[in-house]
Specification:
single chain
């Protein structure tokens, strides 16, 4: 799907500015016409490396918890004041903070006649497409306060999960850094001593020692160039991931094979479906909206297949079993029971709770696994270096 920027106005002559996803220009124009937007300009959005890094830097400076705090504060304020006044209050409270620019732009955009969801799309990389989609649904259903409350809870859970994953990675990361430092010291200080001694004796170093010496000298001589190449490769992969659909699909498919990432995606899916159905949206529309708000392209394609099957008359539970690979029988049992009893919303909420439990259990085991794999990796690196030192010593004893 390509992104298109548009400008126009609706039947009430209110300015409409934003972005939408479509396969091509004609489809984007048709969607806007169907929405009642008189198009003034429509152009495909091109990636800007500068803008990409500005947004990533802003997201990093705000921190992972800022979104949940923003929606939590907003949900409280919406209980006693309008959306516009709530945002103005938040903007005044954020004076001097890095978030002030975002909040002021949200206020100005809403004052200009745009919807709250359209204003959030200006900072989609920060708020996320799923959160923006939920806000849009809340605006249309008149349940914006409830939506922001649920979003705050969901983002708090996601932030807690992210922190636990990061903390689990600290130990293996420190071990690997220590192993790298040890490797640098051995390669640049210890091994050259054996090279000089062997050279003086007219003998050659073992092949493994020569490999490490050559690798160390190459890295030392081309460190800056290697750093530039790595940085350029990272930037290139980010741009390719955002712009090349086939590459994004491949990466997102791999993500779903990792248990914790798959459970997080399922938890978000169950949460969105239960909320949409509770809001009065039909099942096929709920699946469609869930697909649109998912950031995982593979999951989007799967949900599109599920939607087509449901529209053709197939049961939701049967479709899930057929389309979603390795879906837990516990989830399927609850959903099938919910369909049969007419209480699918409650069953989806139960599935969400079960997915939360699975994520927590996986997180509990993650630190131990990370320590084992990190220690083994560091052991292999250091062991190979130690062997490259011991082997010349053993050869020296033979020479003597």
């Amino acid at each position: 799907m390509k992104k298109f920027k548009y400008k126009g106005y609706d039947e009430n002559s209110v300015a409409q500015v934003g972005t939408l996803e479509a396969e091509n220009y004609a489809e984007a124009y048709a969607v806007l016409q169907f929405q009642g937007v008189k198009v003034v300009s429509l152009a495909q959005e091109r990636i800007s490396v500068v803008k990409l890094f500005e947004d990533f830097f802003l997201k990093y400076k705000l921190g992972g918890r800022w979104r949940s705090v923003f929606f939590r504060e907003l949900s409280v304020m919406l209980g006693v004041m309008t959306l516009h006044d709530s945002l103005r209050t938040l903007a005044r409270a954020a004076e001097g903070d890095i978030s002030e620019k975002i909040l002021k732009e949200l206020v100005e955009t809403i004052e200009g006649g745009e919807s709250f969801s359209a204003a959030l799309r200006r900072y989609e990389i920060i708020f996320g497409s799923d959160a923006i989609q939920s806000v849009e649904i809340g605006e249309e259903s008149g349940r914006l306060q409830e939506v922001t409350t649920r979003l705050a809870e969901q983002l708090e859970r996601s932030y807690a999960t992210e922190r636990k994953v990061r903390s689990a990675m600290y130990y293996p990361l420190v071990v690997l850094i220590a192993a790298f430092v040890a490797a640098v010291v051995m390669i640049n200080i210890t091994l050259p001593v054996f090279e000089s001694f062997y050279g003086a004796a007219g003998n050659e170093l073992p092949i493994i020692t020569k490999i490490f010496l050559g690798a160390g000298r190459f890295l030392a001589a081309h460190l800056f160039l290697i750093s530039v190449i790595i940085l350029a490769a990272i930037i290139f992969l980010i741009i390719v991931y955002r712009e090349v659909e086939a590459f994004k699909f491949f990466c997102d498919t791999l993500k779903l094979k990792i248990k914790i990432l798959r459970e997080i995606e399922l938890r978000n899916l169950f949460s969105r479906l239960s909320f949409l159905l509770e809001s009065g949206v039909t099942l096929d529309d709920a699946i469609k909206l869930s697909a649109a708000s998912s950031g995982n392209l593979k999951m989007q394609r799967l949900l599109e297949k599920i939607k087509s099957s449901v529209e053709a008359g197939e049961k939701f539970g049967e479709t899930l079993k057929r389309v979603l690979e390795n879906l837990s029988p516990l989830y399927l049992g609850l959903i099938v029971t919910g369909e049969a009893s007419g209480n699918i919303v409650e069953m989806l909420q139960q599935c969400e709770s079960m997915a939360d439990f699975e994520i927590e259990e996986t997180l509990k085991a993650l630190p131990a696994k990370a320590e084992v794999y990190g220690t083994l990796t560091a052991g292999v690196i250091v062991g190979a270096l130690v062997f490259s030192i011991i082997l010349p010593i053993l050869n020296m004893t033979d020479l003597l």
